[in-house]
Design brief:
The protein is of the alpha/beta class. Helices cover 39% and strands 18% of the residues. The termini are far apart.
Length: 288
């Protein structure tokens, strides 16, 4: 089984609909709303499609397990997606015959797998930062590098994990690399990428501030946005299967479909991915 298997055991155990009060409080920007009777209904006419987005995750395959259906949907709508992978996943093997000398080979293999997965998703730009797998920390150096990339590519939306998630159910402790990458991404989005006098050396190199409009956080305790991935779940699964070094002979399709169906069921969707979305700026707030 892949090292991500405990995550899916947690998902299957812990996914549940929000109480009605939480829907009223939180479904302000998503694809669903709720009327006074408590009925949840789609708001497809308000669906948000960024022109450019950035996905920031710790390891190869993290993106495919979590947000690939959304990214594929955005790509189909004309969005340019940049995929940032902070480590190369070189610690992703428990094979007894392998030692430290295998790590460079595994890193190269996993980068190829991630690039292949991104090709399936329609993502044309992949950035590997080569931080050490299993030893990632939310350092100023990492936040500066992510700030540089945000200022360089100027995404309207950034997609990452929840840095606060530690214990999921009673069967999974979140990988510290996931939290480190997510925290660095969060604070690169705000305040660093938009604040002129943070990392002033970037100004000298020509990286002017950029304000991200929306931050999509997956794995959050409370979601407020559900993205319909019925048309792209097959693409998501095909992309995930490119990570053969992690999957072995395990076929993740049944589990991925069950998870996405559970997330979509309470909202009238066949398959969905769920997020906490921070709206950092409305369209009208951004000057041309």
């Amino acid at each position: 089984m892949p090292r991500m298997e405990p995550v899916w055991r947690w998902i299957k155990t812990n996914l549940h609909p929000l109480p009605a009060a939480d829907y009223r409080d939180h479904c302000v920007s998503g694809w669903f709303s709720q009327d006074e009777s408590g009925t949840i209904f789609p708001m497809s006419e308000k669906e948000y499609f960024p022109k450019r987005a950035m996905s920031i995750h710790a390891h190869p395959d993290d993106q495919e397990f979590t947000v690939a259906g959304t990214l594929a949907r955005w790509v189909q709508a004309g969005c340019e997606v940049v995929s940032v992978i902070v480590t190369s996943g070189e610690a992703g093997s428990n094979e007894p015959s392998r030692g430290a000398d295998y790590k460079p080979e595994l890193a190269r293999l996993r980068e190829v797998e991630q690039s292949s997965a991104n090709t399936v998703l329609g993502i044309r730009e992949t950035v590997f930062l080569h931080y050490p797998d299993g030893e990632l920390e939310p350092t100023l150096s990492l936040r500066r590098e992510l700030t540089r990339l945000i200022r360089l590519y100027k995404p309207e939306a950034v997609v990452t994990g929840d840095p606060q998630g530690v214990f999921y159910g009673n069967g999974y402790i979140n990988h510290p690399d996931h939290r480190a990458a997510a925290q660095s991404a969060l604070y690169a989005v705000f305040p660093s990428s938009e604040t002129r006098l943070i990392f002033t050396d970037l100004l000298k190199d020509g990286y002017e501030p950029h304000k991200v409009k929306r931050l999509y956080v997956h794995g959050s305790e409370k979601y407020d946005t559900w993205v319909d991935i019925a048309a792209t779940i097959g693409i998501k699964i095909s992309a995930l299967k490119k990570h053969a070094s992690q999957l072995g002979d395990w076929d993740p399709e049944k589990m991925i479909r069950e998870w996405a169906a559970e997330e979509g069921r309470q909202h009238g969707l066949e398959y969905a991915e769920a997020y906490k979305v921070m709206i950092l700026s409305e369209e009208k707030d951004i000057p041309e």
